[in-house]
Write a structure and sequence with these properties.
mainly alpha, 2% strand, 389 residues
Length: 389
């Protein structure tokens, strides 16, 4: 039987090598990472050709040819979005080069996590498949729409321009997909730890202190299991901190790019409704594909957010499971009680927070604030258009 998730991971790997995001090799037989002159030169040449063609062919006023009713505000918005997107992707790739050894160590850590806990895949399987499906559909539909629109005016230089834009999109998707898979893996491990912790708490609730040898043996066994869970949770949280530090520059750059793209897309949708001229001559299937592409892009943003939210929820679930210790019968073994208290204190001292540069934290509150800000700036842009054009 074909393992679809395994193929998705392999395709993601080769896509990362093709775009130069992964500047090291992975031996699938041994699982070891390798950085040599060959893969370094391949990734460097890919980035040089990509950004060289983008800089040479970057012409914001090309919108005039595509959209007859485009005004100076459209050109300005298009130019700012394109320029900042290039800058953000460039900084993200620079972070990849400066931290190549760190990313190689991170991959080895996740490989060991999979080897020691093969059941992780069962818990993150659906998330990985949904993510890969959304990204694939969005890129295929985008490529189809662009080639269909430009089929009568396609030249070599225009094809290079389109290739550059699509490569930027591919690089962004590869980086976000890698971060998504890493967080989904951690979430799968958290689910297993919660399952084990729930079993320990349930068995402890059934204990009736009587001082017998059987009772003491069960307490010692439960204490050993709980210590193992606490140790695994501590190691997992250390891995999260390493992942956050490695990706903090890339995540910040891509959040800025996503933010401006969402503001720009809302404004473009408003402009299409107000001015027309862009979609009047489109075949119905092109319009359907464009709407579908936009749907998958927004769905992909939702998957990225909820993947992080569910991880934070799993951590909160662990804290709530430990809160059930207040229901235990009095007179339990002192070692078992001490292990529970130590675990609770450890989680209280080291809460799970996804902070980037000690300034920005990803959670539901900050995501809601970003969404509100996107709507606010989109409305301001639309109001400026209505007032001056």
């Amino acid at each position: 039987m074909i393992d679809v998730v395994k193929w998705c991971l392999k395709i993601s790997y080769f896509y990362g090598r093709l775009t130069g995001v992964l500047n090291f090799e992975i031996d699938f037989k041994t699982g070891k990472t390798l950085a040599n002159t060959r893969n370094t030169m391949c990734a460097a040449c890919t980035h040089f050709v990509l950004f060289g063609s983008m800089v040479y062919n970057f012409k914001p006023r090309e919108m005039k040819r595509m959209w007859t009713y485009a005004n100076s505000l459209h050109e300005y918005v298009f130019m700012v979005l394109a320029f900042i997107r290039i800058i953000c992707v460039s900084l993200a790739l620079m972070s990849r080069w400066s931290q190549r050894r760190r990313f190689m160590r991170l991959f080895n850590s996740f490989r060991l996590l999979f080897l020691y806990n093969p059941r992780i895949m069962q818990n993150c399987r659906r998330s990985i498949l949904s993510k890969c499906f959304c990204v694939t559909m969005a890129e295929i539909l985008q490529l189809f729409v662009v080639l269909t629109m430009m089929r009568n005016t396609l030249t070599i230089w225009l094809a290079l321009r389109i290739w550059g834009i699509l490569c930027l999109t591919a690089i962004v998707n590869v980086i976000i997909t890698q971060y998504f898979i890493a967080m989904a893996t951690i979430r799968g491990r958290y689910s297993l730890l919660n399952y084990e912790l729930n079993a320990v708490v349930s068995e402890t609730l059934t204990l009736i202190p009587n001082g017998s040898g059987v009772f003491m043996t069960r307490c010692c066994t439960l204490a050993d299991r709980l210590e193992k869970i606490a140790r695994n949770q501590s190691n997992l949280q250390k891995l999260i901190n390493k992942l956050t530090k490695a990706y903090q520059g890339q995540v910040l750059c891509l959040i800025i790019a996503y933010y401006l793209n969402l503001v720009g897309s809302i404004y473009i949708l408003f402009s299409i409704r107000k001015y027309g001229g862009l979609t009047d001559d489109w075949p119905i299937y092109v319009t359907v594909c464009s709407v579908s592409c936009l749907f998958f892009v927004y769905l992909d943003c939702g998957l990225n957010c909820f993947n992080v939210f569910y991880l934070l929820d799993d951590h909160d679930k662990m804290v709530k499971l430990l809160d059930q210790r207040t229901r235990f019968q009095p007179g339990l073994d002192h070692r078992l009680e001490a292990v529970f208290e130590s675990f609770v204190v450890s989680l209280a001292r080291n809460p799970l927070k996804l902070r980037f540069f000690d300034a920005f934290e990803i959670d539901r509150t900050s995501s809601f604030a970003i969404g509100t800000s996107i709507l606010t700036h989109s409305i301001l842009l639309i109001q400026y258009d209505m007032a001056h054009y």
